Amino acid sequence: MDQLKAMASSSFPNLAVHTQREVVQAVFSSDGEVGISTEKKSGGLRGKLNKVVLAYSGGLDTSVIVPWLRENYGCEVVCFTADVGQGIKELEGLEQKAKASGACQLVVKDLKEEFVRDFIFPCLRAGAIYERKYLLGTSMARPVIAKAMVDVAREVGADAVSHGCTGKGNDQVRFELTFFALNPELNVVAPWREWDIQGREDAIEYAKKHNVPVPVTKKSIYSRDRNLWHLSHEGDILEDPANEPKKDMYMMTVDPEDAPNKPEYVKIGIVSGLPVSLNGQELSPASLLAELNEIGGRHGIGRVDMVENRLVGMKSRGVYETPGGTILFTAVRELESLTIDRETMQVKDSLALKYAELVYAGRWFDPLRESMDAFMEKITETTSGSVTLKLYKGSVCVTGRESSYSLYRQDISSFESGKIYDQADAAGFIRLYGLPMKVRAMLEKGI
C-alpha cells in the first residue's frame, strides 16, 4: 500500500492522495482525451448516468470499459480496486492506468482481513464445499468486492456500478445480486452484455481509437483468478477434460512429487469453529491463512481438478490451488468429530450443501444463508480445541485432536469392560433396532 501511495505522489504531483483505514484514493481531473457522446444510444440507460463506480483491475478489458462508459453514458468513471490478496503485482501502476483510461478517480481498499474474517471463515465453519470439491474461492470474493463498491458509490455520490464480467460466467450474478441486496436503487452496467466488442483484438482496436494505452502485459493462456484463499485456472488445454494439466501451470503449490521428502506437522488452534492460531501463535485471520498458504504450498497441498456445473447452465472444467484452505477445512472437520454428536453432524452436513450452493450462486446476502449461518455459529459453540496435522507430498493427515468439550470418552469407548456401558445391553438394542427387518423377512417367508 505504501508503494501505491509513493507511485501516486511521484507520478502525479497534483493528485490528492488520502489514506484512511487501508484506503487509497487517487483523484485526478480528466484530460478530455476520451470523447463523450452526447447522442442518446438505443438500449438501457445509455446517456442517462452521472457517475459510475467500476470494478477495476487495470487489465485490457477494464481499461477499455472506462472510455466505453464515458462515451456511451456520458458519465464520470470512478475506478475501484479491492485488494483481496491477489498480490502486489496486480496492484502496481493502477493510478497511471486509470488516469490514462479517462477515469476521474481511483479508490483502492485493502479488504484482506474482512474477506477472510467475514466471508471465508463463515464458509469454513459451515463446511461449505460446492459439488464435492470446490472450496468457493472466487464465489466468496465477489460479494466482499461488490459490497465495497456499494460503499464507494455512496461515498462518491455515484448513481451506478459496473463490472467487466462476461455474460457466460457466474461472477455477473454474484456481483449484481449483491448490488440488488445492498442498494436496489443503483443502476448496473454490464458492458459485455451490451457492447459490440467480441474479443481481445476488438478491445485493442477500441483502446487505440480512444487514445487509451493498451496494458503491456503478456496474456496468459489461462484465465486465472487469484485471492488470499485460492488460485483458479481455466481455459486452453483445460477445456478438454481428458487433458492433464501442465506441470508449469501451477503457481501456489509445488508438484507433490517435488515436495520435501520429510513431512511437516502443524497444530491449528480453533475457537468456536474458527481457526485462531498456528503452532501456538495467535494470528489474525488473513495472516493465519497467508502463513498456511506458504506452508501448504511447499508440500503440494490443495490441488483440485474438477468439472463443475456453472449457475448459468453449462459445465466448465477448472483447476484450483487452495493450500491453506485445504489444511483449515481438514482441521475444523477433524475437531468436529470430537465435539458434535451424530444427529447434529448429519443435519449440519446436509445444510452445508445448501449453504455452498447459495454462496456459489451469489446469494451471500440472502436471508436464508444468513439464517443458516446463525445455526452454524450456534452449533459450533463448543468446537474449540486443537488439531495436529501431518503434511506430506500433497496429503493432509490428522495425527491428533484435543478439546475440553470432547464427547469422546475413553472409559466408554474402550474395549475393556466399563461401568457405564454394559455390553449385555446390546442384545436388546439389536432386537428392537432390527425388528422391522425381521418382520419383513417373516412376511416373505410366510412365517
Automatic annotation (TrEMBL):
Annotated GO MF terms: argininosuccinate synthase activity; ATP binding
Keywords linked to the UniProt accession: Amino-acid biosynthesis, Arginine biosynthesis, ATP-binding, Ligase, Nucleotide-binding
Pfam families documented for this protein: Arginosuc_syn_C, Arginosuc_synth
Source superkingdom: Eukaryota
Domain Arginosuccinate synthase C-terminal, residue spans: 222-439
Ligase among keywords: yes
Pathway note: Amino-acid biosynthesis; L-arginine biosynthesis; L-arginine from L-ornithine and carbamoyl phosphate: step 2/3
InterPro entries: Arginosuc_syn_C, Arginosuc_syn_N, Arginosuc_synth, Arginosuc_synth_CS, Arginosuc_synth_type_1_subfam, AS_cat/multimer_dom_body, Rossmann-like_a/b/a_fold
Cellular component GO terms held in the UniProt record: cytoplasm
A single BP term in Gene Ontology: L-arginine biosynthetic process
Domain Arginosuccinate synthase-like N-terminal positions: 51-213
EC code(s) of this entry: 6.3.4.5
Enzyme class: ligase
PROSITE patterns membership: ARGININOSUCCIN_SYN_1, ARGININOSUCCIN_SYN_2
Presence of the UniProt keyword Amino-acid biosynthesis in the record: yes
Subunit architecture: Homotetramer.
Matching HAMAP family: Arg_succ_synth_type1
The protein's name in its UniProt record: argininosuccinate synthase
